[in-house]
């Protein structure tokens, strides 16, 4: 299913403009390089339109939101929309503060997003306008499990129809959906939640996968989520073997992203369509 998606990243390396979280910006840049893309991290209003013009996609991440970059996000997003480039939104911590929540809705009102990726609490905030996000983490009461999976799939499809965006809800169980079809992905490891930036890295990688496959946004997003989860599994296996800790895990995660092949992905993917 994902063989061509991953091949296109390697054969047509995309340039990805990231206006992102400064806590994780280095990891986002390295994860993009490791998957075969090239990153540009530019967030000054004086250059974001120009930078977006030379790139193939745009990643907007509100993790370290401030008034200065809000205007940069809007300007870059409008330019990307004008050029029909994929635009990916990560509404980090939406629901945790009025600024984050209002900015998320201002972005959604003014820009067209190809993909919206977040944890279940963030995505519920996108849908409902309010939420119970715990900082930048999902509320425990929102967690997707076997009991509420079908309900969450239906919710994701409905939100996709409303926003005209692919919805990626990530957690122990990942759901990637448009208004007609959903993928349920079970790759990943709990250790991924113990290091900062796995979600931010994933959003940037989704932007790269979509840039290289602009006519297959749903499949590209699912492939990116699956790839990241598989890298998390392989990194954990190596971590246990080497008796490593959290810093080693982050390194192994990026290492396996750089070593990922279509064959390895197809062998390790835990995915079903709904």
Structure in words:
The mean pLDDT is 94. The chain is of the alpha/beta class. It is globular and about 45 Å long. The chain has eleven helices and nine strands. Helix 3 runs parallel beside helix 4 and helix 8 crosses helix 9. Strand 1, helix 2 and strand 2 form a beta-alpha-beta unit. It has a nine-stranded mixed sheet, with helices on both faces.
Strand-residue proportion: 5-15%
| Spatial strand arrangement across the major sheet | 2-1-3-4-5-6-7-8-9
Low-confidence stretches: none
Order of helices and strands: HEHEHEHEHEHHEEEHHHHE
- For the terminal residues, how far apart are their CA atoms? 15 Å
Helices and strands, with pairings:
Blueprint (H helix, E strand, L loop, with lengths): L2 H9 L3 E5 L5 H11 L2 E4 L6 H7 L2 E5 L5 H16 L4 E4 L7 H13 L4 E4 L1 H9 L20 H15 L2 E4 L4 E4 L4 E4 L12 H15 L4 H26 L3 H14 L2 H7 L2 E3 L1
Parallel strand pairs: 1-2, 1-3, 3-4, 4-5, 5-6
Antiparallel strand pairs: 6-7, 7-8, 8-9
Summarize the structure.
The chain has 274 residues and is of the alpha/beta class. The chain is built from eleven helices and nine strands. Helix 2 (25-35) packs parallel to helix 8 (198-212) and helix 8 (198-212) crosses helix 9.
Main attributes of the structure:
9 strands; 274 residues; nine-stranded mixed beta sheet; alpha/beta; UDP-N-acetylmuramoyl-L-alanine:D-glutamate ligase
């Amino acid at each position: 299913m994902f063989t061509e998606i991953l091949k296109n990243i390697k054969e047509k390396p995309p340039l990805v403009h990231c206006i992102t979280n400064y806590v994780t910006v280095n990891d986002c840049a390295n994860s993009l390089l490791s998957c075969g893309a090239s990153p540009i991290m530019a967030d000054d209003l004086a250059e974001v339109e120009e930078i977006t013009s030379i790139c193939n996609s745009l990643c907007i991440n509100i993790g370290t939101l401030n008034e200065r970059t809000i205007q940069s996000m809007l300007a870059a997003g409008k330019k990307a929309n004008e050029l029909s480039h994929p635009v990916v939104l990560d509404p980090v911590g939406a629901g945790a503060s009025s600024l984050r929540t209002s900015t998320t809705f201002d972005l959604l009102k003014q820009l067209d997003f190809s993909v919206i990726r977040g944890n279940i609490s963030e995505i519920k905030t996108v849908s409902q306008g309010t939420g119970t996000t715990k900082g930048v983490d999902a509320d425990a009461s929102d967690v997707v499990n076997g009991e509420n999976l079908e309900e969450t799939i239906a919710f994701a499809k409905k939100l996709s129809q409303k926003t005209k965006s692919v919805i990626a809800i990530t957690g122990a169980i990942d759901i990637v959906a448009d208004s007609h079809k959903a993928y349920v992905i079970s790759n990943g490891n709990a250790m991924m939640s113990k290091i900062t930036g796995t979600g931010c890295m994933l959003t940037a990688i989704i932007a790269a996968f979509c840039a290289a496959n602009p006519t297959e946004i749903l499949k590209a997003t699912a492939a990116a989520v699956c790839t990241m989860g598989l890298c998390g599994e392989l990194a954990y296996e190596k971590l246990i073997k080497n008796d490593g800790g959290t810093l080693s895990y982050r390194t192994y995660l990026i290492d396996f992203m750089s070593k990922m092949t279509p064959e390895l992905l197809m062998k390790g993917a835990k995915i079903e369509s709904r």
